[in-house]
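Case 206 in the screening queue. Each case pairs one protein sequence with one candidate compound; here the compound is fe (iii) ion. For every case the pipeline is the same: read the inputs, emit a complex structure as tokens, and attach any notable structural observations.

Predict complex for case 206.
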Amino acid sequence: MSAQNLPPEGFQMLPGYFDRPNQEALVETLRAALHDAPLFLPVMPRTGKPFSVRMSNCGPLGWVSDIKGYRYQPTHPATGKPWPPIPQALLELWKDVAPDAPSPEACLINYYEPGTKMGLHQDKDEATFDAPVVSVSLGDTATFRIGGTSRGGKTSSMRLASGDVVVLGGDARLAYHGIDRILTGTSTLLKNGGRINLTLRRVTKP
Ligand code: MD6
Ligand code: FE
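Case 206 output:
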């Protein structure tokens, strides 16, 4: 028998950080942002295999993946326009949970349709790992898995519901993590169902 492993130091989960009215306001702001910067389907470097989720970004920099690699860039790959600004409510969240960190530069928007997932990965394309990565879940509940800093180690699983916030700082900053599954129909927040995850990141050295 093996006990469930504990997440690394620096992992924080803040259940219900955003209440329903604040979740609704955030979704409205995101709708406008996604009108300007539509979701796109990224592909894996080299192989060109499509991701399961669709993505967009807000902020001065956005994370993209294409045949050439992963990178941050100031413009949307399809429209060529700058990404929309990071919503004020997310800047306030960052100030609250990462008061000593320099301001976030990128907010990745991931949209999970029912049946999609995200493989175990590290967030490591940033030039600095001093600031935490902060995430917000909206819509259907997801099963989140987190391990240590090497692939193949023990992991623990938990459910992320709409309004929950996750912070990966300290030893957890480079922990492997992913989404195993979306629990379809568990939220009424998004008209067409599914789940949105927002990840706020500092990209450059301050
Ligand atoms: C997700 N989350 O919740 C995937 N990354 O859909 C992430 O990849 C993530 O929740 C860095 C920090 C927090 C996260
Ligand atoms: Fe991540």
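Case 206 observations:
- The longest strand covers residues 106-112.
- Residues 110, 118, 123, 133, 135, 137, 144, 160, 166, 168, 177, 179, 197, 199 surround MD6 (ligand 1) (CB under 6 Å).
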